[in-house]
Amino acid sequence: MEKTHGRIICEKECAKEKNKNIKDYTLSQQVFNNPKYKGKFTNPEQVRGFIRYIRGHYGNRRRKSATLPTPLSNSNPSSQYYGQKIDTKAKVLLLDIETAPIMAFVWRLWKQNIGINQIVNDWFIFTWAAKWLFEDRVYSMKLTKKEIFKKDDKRLMIGIYKLLNEADIVITHNGKKFDIPKLNTRFIIHKMTPPLPYQQIDTFDAIKKIAGFSSNKQDFLNLSLGSPRKLDTGGFELWEKCYFGDMGAMQKMEEYNIMDVRSLEENYLKIRPFITPHPNMGLFIMDGLERCPSCGSNDLIDCGKDYYTTVSVYELRKCKNCGANSRVRKTKVSLKQKNGILSSSPR
Hints:
five-stranded mixed β-sheet, 10 strands, about 15% strand
């Protein structure tokens, strides 16, 4: 390609450190709209052509993000994932807990109603595991033998409380009905104040809403989606051994808990573009660029199709990073046109 004045401008812009991670399309828009380059280019596509040539994004070297995502590796869940990591500044925590069973006196095995005066020992937390999205390290805590006999999980609650206070978004599987209410129960029992507010993504609720898997249990999703399977615990016997202070069993329980968190991360990333509404990751960047609400990427394409509500029309966007769909906030319907648009009568 001939080294024209336009190409020289694009080479300078591509060489800037702040522009190296910006997608071709977005950078071409920025360069074309830059006042100091006014009249230097015919249209944004001319700029994009220069940028793609400079970055080697033609022919066999075209970037892979334009194709379907590569499945995650089971051997190292955090080394690969669907789409590129976008630095949104959001703190996204993946979380799972394991609890002790309730010990109670009962007379039968089937359809047994248990009164509170039949409870010998109530449940408490055995272990918890958590990790920040895209980071390899998994944080975890388990009870000591002394804490098990005392049914004292306060140390564990203080540990997870600190992480929840840092989190902007918490991801769980069935956490809205189990993990989060259970943690809140123990916070109350230990006279702790509520953690700072955070948004929740429950992959159990999400998968029920968007898909029709034969089972929504996490290990069935692991099997269906090719994520690491749950560790074989041997059944209730592991929980029984933990209850009576077997620290080898507690170690296995912690490992089981950690693997659940790693699988949760993979499953979340695989279903992420289908989750609606997803906490808006663009709000954690707010740089004036159009951002994907699901992953925060600015590598978006105009779908060439509009999204119609009952009274308005919006342009659709598709994220080339994670595959999620979104719409712009500004309607295509003018104020004058709105006057003639009616809304359906309520039932």
